[in-house]
Structure prediction request, 458 residues.
Amino acid sequence: MKRARIPEPYKIKMVEHIRLLPPEARRQAIQEAGYNTFLFRSEDVFIDLLTDSGTSAMSDRQWSALMVGDEAYAGARSFYRLEEAVREIYGFPYLVPTHQGRAAEHITAQLRIKPGQFVPMNMYFTTTREHLERAGGVFFDCIIDEAHDPQARHPFKGNVDLEKLDRLVREHGPDSIAFLWLAPCVNMAGGQPFSMANLREVARWAKDQNIPIILDATRAVENCYFIKVREEGYEDKPIKEIPLEMMSYAESITMSAKKDNLVNIGGFIATRNQDFFQAARATVVVFEGLHTYGGLAGRDMEAMAVGMREMVDDAYIESRVEQVQRFGQALLEAGIPIVEPVGGHAVFIDAKRFLPHLSQDVFPAQALAAEIYLEGGVRSMERGVVSAGRDPKTGKHRYPKLELVRLTIPRRVYTDSHLAYVVDVCRGVYERRDGIRGLEMVYEPPQLRFFQARFQPL
Ligand SMILES: *Cc1c(COP(=O)(O)O)cnc(C)c1O
Prediction:
């Protein structure tokens, strides 16, 4: 007999009711939101796949850890507990907490980038690129070409192309590079992992050039799960050992704890570079708070320390990533064009193939996200020309190759039957795709425009 699939390694202790608005109310809600899913009231949403950021369900142990938070302004016990967890799980001796990931990015960019320096990244992330450009840095994409092709089935589409880095160094010299800012499970490429072999090779190269590696470790553990199941030599390792090896190649990390770490708010910088640590501590007090809380409550740090240990439980991480894989498989079986292979935290619908009659000038992914809401109250997010923003030099739209709608799965929140419903909703939209029209942008904020831009149907 075939072994039954192992179910989620937890059971449900508390529930939150959700409701599906009738079609007319959904039409009104999307109009009021300016056809931007970031501008909904969450009450108007039935299944919320906007993001996996800060939307995880905490465990009973995390909730009880909140009660023992030490809210001392300075030197809180909760800080030292978090520091200990960071040492154990990530292997960095020095910790600077921040209220969330972008604050860690802001401090890192301000301290580590000289105006005009390049910062190579494997593709880009919205807030990371914003902060590196604010610090006067120049973004350089060093991801392999396959990452820009939604149908290329490379198992590690987050890999760095060393050729591209070599060319940059040949043209401008190693001193023109501030550091490599690499992300595991590259969000904008569809949640695509890099391999340990690739990181090892990049680290060897970077050491020769004397260029530090800073990882955006937000989804490092989900990447480690892919290494475990796809890369030779890791299949028998407990998941807990893999992040330690990954981090050993990095000088520092910036981190949004709202993802892997299973909490609703939090972030940090962790490093083995004592000078950077000193400087970050001195800077965090200006923007965030004292260096032993950095914009967090003591209880937030307690919940993070517990979440960090839960995320490296083998049964948990398998259940997490495999749920996303099954969801992607079901969408494929329904004929929906998605980015392959399926990533670790989300499934990305390929809006270019879904709506081939719409040009990127009329924001096909933005339009598709609106239609998915209208069809069944499901909230998703645009990751295409709106998210890519404008080129700071020319002021023109950046036209990314990928024009995607992201269906992001919060951790431990939805069951497979919620996701089966979402597949039906997507199928419904796909059946009437020829009648879907584009949008025009009627309001555009000066930065990170995707959060607040407003649209009208054409
Ligand atoms: C979410 C995220 C960030 C920013 O973190 P916040 O906590 O939202 O400020 C940075 N990098 C990546 C890869 C992310 O997914």
Summary: The pocket of pyridoxal-5'-phosphate is lined by residues 53, 100-102, 125, 127-128, 183, 187, 216, 218, 256, 258-259, 267 (CB under 6 Å). The chain has two domains: 23-52+314-457, 60-311.
